[in-house]
Amino acid sequence: MNIIEISEFNYQAYTKLDIVAFSFAYEGAMGEHGGIYIIDKDGQIYHANYCYGDNCIEREHIKDIIPVFTDLEFGLLACETKNENWASVDLGFGNRLLMRKEISEGFNKEVIEGDYKGFGVLFQQWPGIVLGLLGKEESHLTMNEIWGEK
């Protein structure tokens, strides 16, 4: 698996991604603080961070890669989207997932049928669920495996 890094230095090359889902972590989240993971329609995974690392992406440039970011409403404990083409899922521990509505029904069905009840389990499993919905072989991919590749 090849994870493409997006930084302040190269973000302009990734402004036309056909994103189907992305997660992001609030600054104090469990896992990678400020981490953003994107999956495009071809199953390619991208990574950026707006808090930590040598090549952080500036917050104002996140919307250039993920335009739906401008439609997000942040609250004390939640983040929702005003964009009717996207659905929002709480992954727990300060992590949020947004996905296109066209895959959200399949995602929700998989969550109901799967064993994702423990807090944090869905956070670990979301990449594999999305990749499975896209028909990709990596349908069991976890966040731990992604972190291991970085």
Characteristics of this structure?
globular, two-stranded antiparallel sheet, alpha+beta, six-stranded mixed sheet, 150 residues
3D structure, described in words:
The chain has one domain (3-149). Helices cover 27% and strands 27% of the residues. It contains 4 helices and 8 strands. The chain has helices at residues 59-65, 101-113, 121-133, 143-149, and strands at residues 3-5, 19-25, 35-40, 45-49, 72-74, 79-81, 86-92, 95-100. Helix 2 packs across helix 3 (121-133).
SSE layout and pairings?
Blueprint: E1 3-5, E2 19-25, E3 35-40, E4 45-49, H1 59-65, E5 72-74, E6 79-81, E7 86-92, E8 95-100, H2 101-113, H3 121-133, H4 143-149
Parallel strand pairs: 1-4
Antiparallel strand pairs: 2-3, 2-8, 3-4, 5-6, 7-8
Helix pairs in contact: 2-3
Annotation field: number of helices: 4
Give the oligomeric state of the chains in this entry, treating copies of one chain as homo and distinct chains as hetero. single chain
Which spans have pLDDT < 50 for at least 5 consecutive residues? none
The span between the termini is 10 Å
Provide a concise account of the structure shown:
This protein has 150 residues and is an alpha+beta fold.
